[in-house]
Amino acid sequence: MLEIRNLHARIAEDGTEIIRGLNLTVKAGEVAAIMGPNGSGKSTLSYILSGREDYEVTEGDILFNGESILELNPAERASKGIFLAFQYPVEIPGVATMQFLKVAMNEQRKARGEAELTTPEFIRRVKAEASGLQIDMDMLKRPLNVGFSGGEKKRAEILQMALLQPSLCVLDETDSGLDIDALKIVADGVNALRSPDRAIVVITHYQRLLDHIVPDTVHVLYKGQIIKSGQKELAHELEANGYADIIGEAA
Ligand SMILES: Nc1ncnc2c1ncn2[C@@H]1O[C@H](COP(=O)(O)OP(=O)(O)OP(=O)(O)O)[C@@H](O)[C@H]1O
Ligand SMILES: [Mg+2]
Q1: Using a 6 Å cutoff on CB, does residue 40 contact ligand 1?
Q2: Where are the beta strands (DSSP E) in 121-180?
Q3: What are phi and psi of 8, to 5 degrees?
Q4: Is 174 touching ligand 1 by the criterion CB < 6 Å?
């Protein structure tokens, strides 16, 4: 579903290369975890997948269902079913979360050739998903992410994902800032989206998230490259030993 081939990318403004020959394949039905030390390029990779203009791809390609997405803008990528939950979710002042969700869902439906949801149907869907994530409906009347606590932002991201039903979900440090109960709720929300025709990429530092969202594959990103790939045991090994051995092997 997602195939990244020899990707090189730099910051548009000053030309600093951050992604340096990254290869990664994530198949449909798979949950892939990306781990790696601070500053290795994990969030940058998620920004590049989303199509942010601050980055330039200088070499390589990103294929989604066999087609390059490099020329697509962020909205076109989203309409193809690519969903990114960022480490630091953006605040959208002036737009009530409900309104935002409605527009996002209807855009998605339009792109799939489906009819717009009626308002009662939309509200029914939001209520059902919000209650599973223990999100208060009052919170959804407020502007998206504005003044939301760290954990509320993360839940709001999972709510969007649950409603949009994307084919590729990339979650950047969805566990950061979550209390113990919220971690479980968010993980259950992600697990509910596991499906043979969907791929999920979770970027995380800690095994604790992967105890709840058990990954099929684990990849270590270091200095802009995947230096090791394995199965769920690789995350346990990292938790026990840190990155030094793996970085040493790759050097
Ligand atoms: N606009 C920018 N200007 C200069 N350097 C940048 C810019 N954006 C990112 N970087 C650098 O790129 C590197 C990769 O950053 P990135 O945020 O992708 O790391 P990360 O793997 O997500 O780290 P963390 O685990 O701390 O979230 C870092 O060294 C960062 O300082
Ligand atoms: Mg990051």
Answers
A1: yes
A2: 143-144, 168-172
A3: -120, 130
A4: no
Q: How many other C-beta atoms are found inside a 10 Å radius of the C-beta of residue 76?
A: 13
* Angle between the N-to-C axes of helices 97-111 and 119-132, in degrees from 0 to 180, rounded to the nearest 10: 110
Distance from residue 51's CA to the centre of ligand 2 (Å)? 16
User: Which tokens sit at 59?
Assistant: 């070499």
Residues 26-72 have pLDDT tens digits of: 999 999 999 999 999 999 999 999 999 999 999 999 999 999 999 99
Q: Is 16 in the pocket of ligand 1 (CB under 6 A)?
A: yes
> With contact defined as beta carbons under 8 Å apart, do 210 and 187 qualify?
no
List, in order of start, the domains of the chain with CATH numbers: 2-94+167-250 (3.40.50.300)
Ligand 2 center to residue 224 CA distance, Å? 12
pTM of the model: 0.92
> From the CB of 228, is ligand 1 less than 6 Å away?
no
What is the spatial distance between Cα 212 and Cα 221, in angstroms, rounded to a whole number? 21
CA 65 from chain center: how many Å? Answer: 17
Residue 6 Ramachandran class (φ > 0 left, ψ -120 to 50 alpha, else beta): left
Rounded CA gap, 108 and 103, in Å? 9
